[in-house]
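Hey everyone, long-time lurker, first post.

I ran two proteins through the pipeline my lab uses and got sequence/structure pairs for each. Pasting them in order. The first:
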Amino acid sequence: MKQKPSLLMLSMSWALIIALLMTAVSFMHNFQGELSDPLTGSIRWGDVGFLFLAWFVAAELIMLIGGGLYFGGKILLRRLKR
């Protein structure tokens, strides 16, 4: 018996992919040195982790809001057709 995929898990996996890509882009550009220590020039991994977490939360919130709007509109249109 096939199971339906969980929409929340799909949303979280897409948010993870988006967060990884955006962190990589930000990490490559290095925000003009904002992710590195000004004295030593080494990368502050805590800041990179916080940046990833911020991108993940932002992407997940947008996915959940979009899903809510989609399903809310679908329910509203179904009620209007009656």
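...and the second, right after it:
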Amino acid sequence: MAWKIHKGDKLNPYSYAQTLQELMLKKAISNHFDLEKELLCRDVRIKPLTLFFIDNIESYRNKEGHLRKLLESFIRVEVTQRLQTEKHIFYRRYLEKTLEEVSLTHGAYFSKDNTDKDEAIEKEINEILHDKQTLLSLDNPRRFIFSKWTLREGWDNPNVFQICKLRSSGSEISKLQEVGRGLRLPVNEYGHRVKNESFYLNYFVDFTESNFIDSLISEINKKSKVISVDQIKEKLEDDLIRKIVEKYHLEENQLLQKLTVDDKIIDFSRKFLLDGFQRVKMLYPLAFDGIDSDRIRKSNQMRSKVRIRSEKYNELKSLWEKLNEKVILEYRFNNEDEFISLLSNFFKIQKEQFQVEQLNEKKLIVAIENGKAIYLEENSVLDSKMIAISTMRYSDFLKELSKVIYVNLNSLHKAIINSGIDLNAYMNATTIRLIKQAFNKFLLYNAIDKFSINYKKITNSIHPTKLTDKKGNILTEINASDIGMLFTNEGVANSYLFDELYYDSLLEKENIKTTLKEVIVFTKIPRNSIKIPLVGGSTYSPDFAYILNFENGNKQLNFIVETKNIDSKEVLRHEELQKIRHAEEFFKGEVKIHFKTQFSNNNIAKLIQEAYYGMKD
């Protein structure tokens, strides 16, 4: 099928679903009427108000404004539906009065209104700002109030039971100040405070303020001096990442992928999303043993730096410089059709993973327990609704997807057509993110078997490195944390490059202590110093580099080791096996480098013996 995209083409246009703002508005209105029924069907009635903060004033003030028309249509639908079943005499009349003139159910105050001479608006503003008695009268149908942000300094109304933010705060202001507009003891129909009951303020925010509750609780506890604010982390810090990686034997990239894309616990700047810190503590409890203690500083002799035995570097130099060469990774296909076929197969396999963009509601209740602010999550299977909130046109979807997976538009379109899948329901940002994530893994899993790869040197510039300065001279010391997060006073092997024992696992510790006569020099490879590019965009970092000497110096071998704290190769996931195969490809070349994976039941002596006999073959 011949097909080309030209500038300005509009392909498969798709009507937009409800926006997030519309759904929040609808949810707040529906929730208001639930509250209203509960509070107005009591013996002594309480009239609830809902406060909306909006950005676009004209969309409300203009009689034909989108927000105003939407608001009134939602109210009509909601009231009409409730009248079909409502039997309470007073409340039924109240709802009927609402339908008589829906425009009277809402009002607003904006600072620009001070210059407005419209008499009706002036009356509305006066009622909202100054006449609480009229606003809370049961003869008055007004119960929805709109404002740009926080109305006027000092404004409040005791019967605000809901606040819905249809706009962001725009700045980091106090969360207590925000909710304070509604944290009041309500008054009943006779103007008396209701003191003998507990009432909740419903506060609606969208995903851009997913940390709202965490921030609010932190602020409450800080002001009440109950708990140190430092105990509620806002960002995933490097120390915690290292702890998790060490305790659970993960790759750093693998961990960050899980926390950002898979589990949505942190954003791409590593800030915790809603209850993210607590979720990390639940997922990785071992990493929190002594997280704030001096556990890794258990020796008074432990320093922040570790010394390099500079006299040993000359033997390691050639291998070290080879490892630090700058390379690019080439994907090699025989032709474009071969790639399109692979991409089509990917789409067929991944179809079940595509998602409709949906609104997921989460209800969190702030409470005080043992003198400390906490939150409780309340969910209902029946109340949980999955609603599509946005889509993209096919052309826009194709262009955005093309950018993130680095595939030209024509090839991408052909692959989608060839796969036979219907993308109409899945054209959204979530699907693009999922495709990017899945496609990178798909390429990694199929590399070498379905297409070849090649590492190509791109520059002669090597230094500075983690061990050398910009002139290539060996450093005297480096950061100890780059070698290991744990320390022991035990001695190191004579051939080891560093003079102290820093390590990240028991397997590493044993390697560093083991003296073998065949080893001229070896080193733990400093953290993040060697990153082998992998298909799909991630990297791979080996752990040890050895220079081996056999047959009285007649044969020498460069030996690279990757440690794995598991028993055997059979336990390795497909992803890890592919990373090892990439490393084997990377170490092919002019300088012969032998690469080996060490499992927890292998000692380093056995691996070196295998390397020697492999070299003889």
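Reply from user beta_strand_b:
Welcome! Quick read of the second one: The chain has four domains: 20-209, 231-293, 305-328+458-616, 334-363+380-450. The first strand starts at residue 49 and ends at 53.
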